[in-house]
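TA notes, week 10

Several of you asked for a full example with nothing omitted. So below is the full record: structure tokens for the whole chain, then the designed sequence directly under it. When grading your own attempts, check the secondary structure regions first.
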């Protein structure tokens, strides 16, 4: 089932943790509405990145799945507003995060995470926060940066 032209429900709810632990990661109708909104906004992000394929590493996380991962209880993944992704044909996660931080579009948080992927959330607060986290010990730092 497609939530938008290039993003499927399957890709947005796939979770290795849920599968491994036998946890249900099926969204409620409320969350499904948010996921659909997230995917439609990601169509715009995909276009900004030159219409190159977006690889989704994490979308929705049911509360139990999020807890198993050790995610913050306030994570936008729990409400369906957040997506973790890469766009290898565009560049590294750092290049993608840096580029997106310079574009004019509405988002809540853009986070360069662990040097490995980009977290983008569309929570309606739309704070346009750009952050970097490279290790749990180092925590979140303002801006998109390598160090
Ligand atoms: Zn994330």
């Amino acid at each position: 089932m497609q939530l938008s032209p290039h993003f499927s429900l399957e890709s947005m709810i796939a979770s290795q943790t849920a599968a491994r632990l036998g946890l249900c990661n099926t969204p409620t109708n409320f969350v499904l509405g948010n996921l659909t909104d997230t995917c439609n906004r990601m169509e715009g992000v995909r276009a900004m990145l030159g219409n190159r394929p977006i690889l989704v590493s994490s979308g929705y996380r049911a509360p139990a799945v999020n807890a198993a991962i050790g995610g913050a209880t306030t994570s936008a993944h729990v409400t369906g507003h957040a997506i973790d992704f890469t766009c290898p044909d565009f560049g590294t996660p750092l290049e993608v995060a840096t580029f997106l931080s310079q574009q004019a579009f509405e988002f809540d948080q853009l986070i360069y995470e662990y040097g490995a992927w980009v977290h983008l959330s569309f929570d309606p607060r739309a704070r346009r926060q750009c952050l970097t986290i490279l290790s749990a010990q180092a925590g979140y730092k303002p801006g998109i940066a390598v160090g």
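The chain has a mean pLDDT of 97. Use that as a sanity check on your answer.
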